[in-house]
Amino acid sequence: MIFYIGPMALGLLMGFILGTRIKPVPESNLKFDKEVYAIVLIAAIAVAYYLGPFPYYKDIPLASGFVAAIVGIMIGKLIFGR
Amino acid sequence: MSTILKLFVFPISLIIICLGINTILGGHITPGGGFQGGAMIAGGLIFCIVVYGLKESPFKLSHSFLASLESAGALTFVLFGVAGLLFSGFYLYNLGVDLYGIIPPAIKGIFNYPDPIGAGIIPYLNFAVGIKVLVGLSAVVIAFLESDKIIGENEQ
Asked: Which of A34, A58, B16, B57 lies at a CB distance of 3.0 to 4.6 Å from B52, suitable for a disulfide?
């Protein structure tokens, strides 16, 4: 199994940048806890699986950039989005 | 907005944003690229801002953040252009591919995008354009939403 670093690194970087801007909102009645992020992660992996190895790669049966982006968002949220 | 909408929009917007990033990453091979992907990411952000409002939106896009992100995108694009000018004599020369064979292999290795296609600097340029577009489009919507407040302050 081959992993291409390019799409993973750029996807992770862009997801990270956007993830840092997700902040808790004290004024809101709705709270998005870790369960929501866990469900989003599972849904994102399912979407990535149905997208296939986009764009025309043959490395893994997932859209690796898509998965890297959601992981980047989660990491950005965990580090700076508190 | 209704509570059901508020429950669903944030998770859905995360998926839309990831799809936008994926579109940017495939821009050198597939239809779409920096502009389209950036517009999709901005769509996800705008979706959140419109439904929750600026105050309650989980995405806190401050003026300084947007300004620095847009500047970073523009600077990245210009720096890749200047790098081409420095090493080859042509502005925005694709240093990673080097069609004319005029630059040293070490430089070519640095600028090549690590994937099987070997598109050189094109994916990096897509990335820079994507950042600029996502900031530009979301800033327009934020400015429109803020305009009520500014008009109210001016009337008083």
From this structure: B57
Minimum-distance CB partner of A44 among B15, B52, B57:
B15
Per-residue model confidence as pLDDT tens digits over A6-19? 889 999 999 999 99
* Residue ranges of domains in chain B: 3-155
Nearest to A21 among B30, B61, B115 (CB): B61
User: CB-hemisphere CA count at 13 Å for B52?
Assistant: 27
Is B70 buried (19+), middle (13-18) or exposed (0-12) by CB count in 10 A?
middle
Residues of B in contact with A38 (CB under 8 A): none
What share of chain B has pLDDT > 90, as a percent? 59
Interacting residues of B31 by C-beta distance below 8 A, sequence separation 6+:
none
Q: Token pair for residue A25?
A: 């909102």
Using DSSP's 3-state secondary structure scheme, residue A22 falls into strand
